[in-house]
Specification:
32 strands, homodimer, Apiosidase-like_cat_dom (chains A, B), 5-stranded mixed sheet, alpha/beta, DUF5605 (chains A, B), Immunoglobulin-like, 3 domains, TIM Barrel
Chain lengths: 489, 489
């Protein structure tokens, strides 16, 4: 028995390693649970077999102070271990897991604001080590604080990489042994989640996806295997504070699954995860037809927020009214020049969608898809970024992060998407519209500073003088402009 | 009794003028009908009082040959007139009224193609004569073949013109006498419809609209006055071959009307018009929210086509599936720089919407709304055009008019909007998408010429060599490109 004696910071990771039986199939045959207690409050977590006779229990303490624990197991060797550790305050850079704050926003568990500015590298952990390091180096310099990434490998256009290992081990004679996990794979995945954590990036982990088409069969496992996989993943990963559960990508394209499967899997995720990490499910859709967008019923209590695919930036207010949960438009087309419609918008258009969506009180996610001789495309494999949008997304992030904390969409200003706090602060975005001027009406007795933001040129120009009452604000006769109004008295 | 003895061309206008009673209110008190016969086929048309003791019956013959007529009236003076005239073949430039051809297209009555390329001058006939002449001079040089225009004057932003006369005469002491029409007004309107006819422009005549707000009260008349007005308008104007009946603009913004009113008025229009001119009704809507678009039930048999307001160019295929009638997106925002969201898109965006809508088998309408010191804005008053889009719309019109006559949308090509004829001709538009290349799959054994069309620069570049089978077509890494594929063998 090895116990890390060091104190664990709040939202850090405590790990208990135990030697146990190796015979048979320990993944399937042994049950191990840890019970962590403090002040009469107990949290139960599932342990897992990590190969080589080693079992582990991981725990993320959410309160400071002295925690005690005990184990229960079907195996005598693993049963009845007890101990304790001290949970100390979170250290710099650790603000805990991201939670839903209200209908519109997210926040870290320590109460500080978190606005998702995500990007997408679906299969990056399935590339070679050098490429993964390159991706991490790029992310270290990029403006993103969330990464959409898959557990299972991906078989899709521009991506036919066969990884060196898989969540499951291969069977002799072909196929996978869906009862035995591969600890090497999970060690790699955990390393990457830790790396992202170091960079302040949330791992929006896609647990199932349709990009398989019979190559490995992970999109068409039996329900029992899906559940078995899910329990193991959660047992291993839930104690990483930066994990989000993205149950599936383009779930509606997975022909072997039914809606009842998604209900069950989402509920299982909710049950198995002691920390209630964010849970979402992402739709696919035909690109042409609003009617063909099939959203999961996001009113279900086991869904924390919307992680949707849609190209119409005017939709979020409608979804807010219906579902009353924060919205991340995780796919709205990517900056690039692929033949595929989802992967060939300009940097201007990518940035416009970010602004248009954020100015409606929602969030948008980046991806990059430039045709490349070697098919090294960021959106699938990571690597380097080439586009024009990340710099502008950083500019937008800076602006949003200096907005008052509790900003909301202001639908009363019906003609220009606007977020802010009535009477205090307004950030409005004109997008493809280019008014020569705007009549601004401000509350009586107040004075506002006005700034004109060129979202593409990344300039902020303060308007001379203060605005009061009803005034006419001259605007540049250009697209991609925003106005920021801040009350000064 | 005066009869124009000259032969009348097919779809021309025969007019019979009769002297009749002037006492009382002849508009309301006298009934006059004309019955026109040829080969046992009879058409009944309503006559109308034109002031000064003159009554008129107008008739548009739709078949060549000898027509005879007789009159019936409540007034002895007007009753029992008979006569005949010769209907000769249509002369150059006269192709008859525009009809619905099929689910997607319109055609002139002579069978030749008509694709609407409209513009908008809502209140142009209410301006002074010099200004109207200016508008006509502009239209003579512009690429448009349809004009959206109102009968009633317009009270709205940037337009507070009080016209010199109205459909109804003023009452002494204020207000209008809703039982007495003003023939001066109708003479002017008819002159303008004729002027448009000379220019080959269809008059998409808006019979009711909400831009009044108590100033004149024409948006809030009693049902009986609405019907009375409609009968008179149709009696006077139906014989102009280039008239379309646009029952209302933004009908859903007319608070004094109910859906049953629109049903009744549309059915009345259908009954009163012997020639079955096109009939539509145009929705208003909040700009932000798809859910707030309230379409009239376009499945009703008294609606010939959709004349809609919407800003989402991807919607037409959905409406086609539902309503199975040709679609004109008569408002999708205007080129300009007004503060209002509907009036401040760029020329690029206006042209993009035209292409995106036309490439989905529908039609789009132009408007121009540049802020102007004197509030002389094309969309309301006519005058001159200043924008960048008309020239590009002309370019597009040329391309569409050289497409094979029976082109249709090809939804099987799901990723890029495409019209054409399968195996023969494809016109596809990439819009804001900028693929670096496209994989083209053509029917076996065929060869196609490929052209790359820069819709903004107005260039057509033929690709070297012919395409066969599956080929990779390199595209410029630019937005606003189209591809035209024409079978050569």
């Amino acid at each position: 028995m090895t116990v890390r004696e060091a104190a664990v910071e709040r939202w850090g990771q405590f790990e208990l390693s135990l030697a146990g039986p190796q015979e048979g199939n320990p993944y399937a045959e042994q049950e191990l649970k840890g019970y962590f207690s403090k002040d009469g409050h107990e949290v139960s977590v599932r342990g897992f077999y990590d190969g080589g006779g080693v079992y582990r229990i991981r725990f993320m303490p959410e309160q400071e102070g002295r925690w005690t624990y005990r184990t229960e197991s079907s195996a005598a060797q693993l049963n009845g271990h007890t101990g304790s550790f001290e949970c100390i305050p979170a250290q710099a850079g650790n603000r805990g897991p991201v939670r839903v704050k209200d209908k519109y926003q997210f926040a870290y568990a320590d109460g500080s604001s978190y606005a998702p500015f995500g990007t997408t590298c679906y299969a990056w952990i399935h590339l070679d080590e050098a490429m993964q390091k390159q991706t991490l180096a790029t992310l270290a310099e990029a403006p993103f604080n969330k990464l959409r990434m898959c557990v299972f490998p991906k078989h899709y256009a521009f991506n036919s990489t066969d990884p060196d290992c898989y969540p499951f081990v291969k069977k002799q004679g072909g196929g996978f042994d869906l009862e035995r996990f591969d600890p090497r794979f999970f060690a790699k995945l955990e390393q990457r989640i830790s790396d992202l954590q170091q960079l302040g990036i949330e791992a929006d982990l896609i647990l199932f996806h349709p990009y398989d088409k019979g190559r490995w069969g992970f999109d068409a496992m039996e329900s029992s295997s899906d559940d078995y996989y899910l329990r193991y993943v959660i047992a291993r990963l839930a104690s990483f504070r930066n994990v989000w559960w993205a149950l599936a990508n383009e779930y509606d394209f997975m022909e072997e699954k039914h809606m009842t499967d998604w209900d069950r899997l989402l509920q299982l995720t909710q049950e198995e995860d002691p920390y209630a990490h964010l849970r979402s499910i992402h739709n696919g859709t035909k690109m042409y037809d609003h009617a063909s967008v099939v959203f999961y019923d996001h009113k279900q209590p086991w869904i924390t927020h919307l992680s949707v695919q849609h190209w119409d930036v005017t939709m979020p207010p409608i979804w807010h009214r219906e579902f009353r949960k924060p919205i991340v438009v995780d796919e709205c087309c990517y900056e690039g020049n692929l033949p595929q419609r989802w992967g060939n918008v300009t940097g201007e258009e990518m940035v416009r969608r970010f602004w248009d969506i954020i100015a409606r009180g929602s969030y948008c996610t980046h991806g990059e898809t430039f045709a490349d001789e070697n098919d090294t495309i960021w959106w699938a494999k990571g690597g380097k970024l080439h586009g024009d949008s990340p710099e502008r997304i950083r500019f937008l992030r800076t602006i949003l992060e200096t907005a008052p904390e509790n900003y909301k969409p202001i639908p009363e200003i019906y003609d220009v998407p606007t977020i802010g706090i009535e009477g205090e602060y307004y950030l409005q975005y004109f997008g493809i519209h280019r008014p020569a001027y705007r009549i601004i009406e401000l509350p009586e007795g107040s004075s506002f500073k006005a700034e004109i933001i060129d979202t593409w040129e990344m300039t902020i120009t303060e308007v001379e003088g203060l605005l009061n009452g009803t005034s006419r604000l001259e605007l540049p006769d250009k697209i991609y402009q925003a106005v920021r109004l801040t009350r000064v008295s």
